[in-house]
Amino acid sequence: MGATAEDHEPQNKRAKTNRDKSEYLTQAPVDGDSRCHFFVAGKGRYCRLLTKAENKYCGEHMVVSDSGSAKSAMRRVPCPYDPSHSVDLGKLKKHMESLCNSRPPAIRPAFTNIDCNVSLLPPGYAEKSFDECGQLWSEEALAKADARLMVPPGERIYLGTTSSKVFGDLNPSSHEQQARTNSAPLNEATVRRLLRPVVTAYLQSVSATPEDVESAELDDLLELVRLTEDFPVDSCTHSALEERSHAKTNPKHALQQSSLIGHLEKRGLLDKRYAFIEFGAGKGELSVYVHAALNPGPEGSDSSIILVDRKNFRQKYNIGEQDSAAEPLHHRFERIYIDIRDLDLSKIPTLQTIDPATGAIQLRPIVAYSKHLCGAATDLTIKCLERYQQAGGSVAGVAIALCCHQVCKYSMYVDHMHLSTATTHGSGASEWCDSQRDEFQHLTTMSSWAVNAPTPSQSTDDQQQQQQDGQGADQAAHYSGLSFDQRMRAGHAVKRFLDIGRLAFVRQNLGMKDAALVYYTTRSMSPENLALLGTTTTAP
């Protein structure tokens, strides 16, 4: 029997209520309104929390209050460990000592090595202060701008004001505002100047360059960019996720995970001799199915699975909930909470073994993998693996699904020599260049245009409407002077140009001569469907 109008009435009423509430929150609070006056830019609405009678802001946003509002405004300061939340100044010491969820451990683990995986540090990084370089350090996500790592636990760094003895002003809003003010906007001339050499380099890498490339216009070069035909397409599957792929209403994550694990199997990397490391693990779902694919059996194995993430997620996946075997028979399933920027794999005890003959420490061979490792985290991971090899370890293979190039960082990108082939500044891989950094930031901004492309799952009408929306008023108003279709192609070329540099680095520095960029799933499953795959021929 079909659903009646009465069946849908409660649902429709809830939808109408949610719409009304959303519209209400986008309207500025008026005098006497008990709503917080803080505008949450990322959500396009005002804060939904209520305030005390005499205040304009809620307790969380009191830190940004103007001097004329609540008398208690100056009592709240940003938390030194995590400036995304604030705390009453009188309770700061206790908050930092025992309450803050972002506080660092009292003793840093042995595998912590600050900024060890950053490819290129700015000049004077060791000597200069936060007051001098805070904006640059914050933009590049370097450790000296991260109070959670650099402030000793329990130190009361605020002395009745919002400034730190070590870092100066820790209020992120002031630095973000300064960064926005100083940032040079992109315009049509700059876009075309930066895009032409990058698009040309990309086309040359995929053997799609026109005969007379020197005289070709940017518009002609963009016509040669193909969104899915520049690298091989290979969607693998693995039986470990077969049941889940059919059980879920939306199987896209399961299909992507199945393909990545299938590629590990295809390259002979699902071997219990290796330790497995998931970078940017999040809740750990992918590793649960890597564990299942290894099929430990009742006898267990010596293999380990290590999950690395800088954040402790709720509702984490647990091998114990997926496996009926007794806990001692599981693979070791270890979580490490640290920024990849500061991770020294060679110091993780699980990866160390003792040679019985000599007593020397030996490092276990590892396999690294990740599903959608955002932006700079991919570069940090590649450098982390290189450092592991330099310390005497072996990286048997990698399988990293790439994404979010718009959050790549100049200081962390693995191959500055590659950048120098298509940027107008920069003379080498070991020299910091402010002009090249500015161009890199512009390129990462343009890379986000690629994910605006309509996916094959959309109907023809939807795709045509999206194209019309982009090529109508948007084309005339867009600062680049490019059409919607041209921007998609330009963004794709920038993303792939950065990935090609990573590929070259992995082949050269990790010794993975067979490394390749492969579309591991369809664009309808994910617009970020490219993976970096590779194996080391000398792996044991």
Q: What value does the Rg take, in angstroms?
A: 26 Å
Q: What separation lies between the terminal Cα atoms?
A: 62 Å
Would you tell me the structural class of the helices and strands?
Answer: alpha/beta
Estimate the global geometry from the Cα principal axes: globular
Give a count of the beta strands, DSSP E runs of length 2 or more. 15
What average pLDDT do the residues reach?
A: 79
Oligomer: single chain
Given the structure, what is the number of helices?
17
Approximate strand percentage:
5-15%
The largest sheet is:
7 strands, mixed
Q: Strand sequence of the main sheet, in spatial order?
A: 9-8-7-12-13-15-14
Low-pLDDT windows of residues:
1-16, 67-73, 154-162, 170-183, 320-331
Measured as a percent range, the helix fraction is 25-40%
Top keywords for this entry?
two-stranded antiparallel ribbon; globular; alpha/beta; disordered N terminus; seven-stranded mixed beta sheet; 540 residues
